[in-house]
Amino acid sequence: MTARSIGAVAAGFVAVAVVTTLVDVVLHATGVYPPWGEPIGNGLSLLATAYRVVITIGGGYLTARLAPIRPLAHAVVLGIVGIVAAAVATAVTWNVQPPLAPHWYPLALVATALPCTWMGGRIVSRGAR
Description:
This protein is mainly alpha-helical. The chain has one domain (3-127). It contains four helices and no strands. It has helices spanning 3-29, 42-66, 71-93, 104-127.
């Protein structure tokens, strides 16, 4: 991989991490989410999954737009990186007491990482035709 390829994937990853964190901060600050460290239930976990899906599609789109060649392949690499990151986070938080969220939530993040980044990359690939 070239430096531009690595940069494209890194930019997508950082963008997803920063934007999701900012949304989390706003939702905590406005009282939609409970205070930090307190668990969220199924409804708020569904909300978090929904906006993470949209943001992750955006990360795949950004990665593909920045890719020097083969934009969809770069978006897929981002998805694989996302799977690994989400799986590590899942393993680290799985037995936290009290649980921060229902167990389905981190599994959903693992499962949606690749399809979302692929979709973002696909949007770019279709537009290039």
